[in-house]
């Protein structure tokens, strides 16, 4: 398969690749922390970019890479009258900057990205980052050392490294090459070796606010379907998840789930059947996965409401009243938490053995209804 035809594991379907995104949105604190380290002479060779999936970690990594490779090396002072140029006050560089054009084309010699490779035998992306991918850095640092200048490595996502790859990367962090910066994107930093985490400085990114979410979706060319606050709430502040919800009409799907349970104990069984059947068939596989994800989210929001005594911000009309009625207190919180563990495990097992999607979803909905009746009694 040609390089152009190989899918990119770090691209969200329907959205620009992070290297094609001009700027980071809603993560000013993380940007400021890196810029402060750079201008203050406290640059670390390893940076760990953490936070929920889809909040801009990869976009920030590519923004940092462009910024670093566009900065002159060594003493930048000595202008016409011996004055140093002003320190940069932002990470963005001009879109027509030569570095920006080269990075967009993946042709900058100072940049290397490490991600899951292509399996020629199985004709699909590998499930992990292997040691062979990390070993490519030997040639990268060897060839670029003679040229001087900065070298930047992006690992996306570092959580996907197998044990051999992680140990190989650890050696680089322990003895980093000169002028090298390693940017590790991590959705679940607890899965990384403690020694890798200890040798990196962490940049923690936060879920996006509704306003930042709307701005990020507009920048990605996505229309906001309905209430931006509801989309931010359902997606957990993740742009990647919000795009998925928008493409699969996730807001309407969650609203349908809320409606089904709003009349408990009078479950609208025909409506539940229609919901289940809408996720059946090969063409509806993505909707099936999303339906299970939203059911899992509803269970978590029920447990949270019972534990805190206050429903979270509404993600669908009437949701707050439904949550408060079905989860009125701590006892209900424990019941919904236990139900979430059981029903989520059952759904994953059914998914793994290819049970009929409609039957699996309908069974899950009916068991949630039984749980609501038992807790009410």
UniProtKB/TrEMBL annotation:
A Pfam family hit: DNA_pol3_delta2
One GO term of the biological process aspect: DNA-templated DNA replication
Domain of life: Bacteria
A GO CC annotation given for this chain: DNA polymerase III complex
SMART domains: AAA
Domain AAA+ ATPase span(s) in chain numbering: 43-208
Protein name: DNA polymerase III delta prime subunit
